[in-house]
Amino acid sequence: MDSRTMLQLSHMSKTYCSDAGSSVAALDGLDLTVGAGEFVVLIGPTGCGKTTLLNIVAGLDSPDAGEVRRANGLLPGRNMPCVFQHYTLFPWRTLLRNVTFGLEMRGTPRADRLAIAANLLAKVGLTGFEQAYPHELSGGMRQRAAIAQALATEPKLLLMDEPFGAVDDATRRDLQQALVDLWQEGGMTVLFVTHNIDEAVVLGSRVSILSARPGRIVREFRIDLPRPRRRTDGAFADQHLRIREALICETGKPDAA
């Protein structure tokens, strides 16, 4: 694996045992390489193994076969956090103290971690809410805070599992743009799971399509559209259509839902 590669998955397979006692293959011989600084979006039908793949990369699960190779210094739980669809904030801590949590665990001096957290909350549009508790905020605001929390420790690889799936369309678009801005500013690598083609084209520098279960990468698209990306542009619509047609061809479904 060369120095420009952040993550490499080779011939990775994973099988689970169902409640009925039968074997269910989630992944089968999956190969994926993610370069440093890429924004890679995974899309595919429900049950194709997208979340399983992300859990294995995050170190929350292990493959039955194959190899997971991470860049030197890339450690699960330290510099490759995961943001889920349902926010993972601590309800008893304010937003500011939620964002500082990882820095506290690292022993970052108090003044430094407070400054870092306040700066990140400002970047995700939460200035003035530093002392609010999660239950006092909307779902979109909580998800903004979860993103700030994940970015506080300056991750090399950010893992995201349908993080905007539970918010309304307007909030979703705001969060998408905020994420792109932070990605461009910080130079981190992002591996993002979604079932939404529109979101994949808005966000990704590359879109990888997973087959129906068991999952494997069957098509990839390089997205070279300029940013910010406008859904009304003809080139955006063309890219959207190409991915939709590929999903129909590879999975038999017109979208990934």
Characterise the protein shown here.
By secondary structure, the protein is of the alpha/beta class. The protein folds into 2 domains: 170 residues, P-loop containing nucleotide triphosphate hydrolases (Rossmann fold, 3-Layer(aba) Sandwich); 62 residues, no CATH class. 35% of the residues lie in helices and 24% in strands. The protein contains 7 helices and 9 strands, in the order βββαββαααβαβαββα. The strands form 2 sheets. A 6-stranded mixed β-sheet has the order 5-6-7-3-8-9, sandwiched between helices. β1 and β2 form a beta hairpin. The longest helix is centred in the last third of the chain and has 18 residues. The chain is globular, with a radius of gyration of 18 Å. The relative contact order is 0.18.
Which features characterize this protein?
257 residues; alpha/beta; Rossmann fold; 6-stranded mixed beta sheet; 3-stranded antiparallel beta sheet; 7 helices; 24% strand; globular
Structural topology:
Blueprint: E1 5-17, E2 23-35, E3 39-43, H1 50-57, E4 65-70, E5 82-84, H2 95-106, H3 110-123, H4 139-151, E6 157-161, H5 169-186, E7 189-194, H6 197-203, E8 206-210, E9 217-222, H7 234-251
Parallel strand pairs: 3-7, 3-8, 5-6, 6-7
Antiparallel strand pairs: 1-2, 1-4, 8-9
Helix pairs in contact: 2-3, 2-4, 3-4, 4-5, 6-7
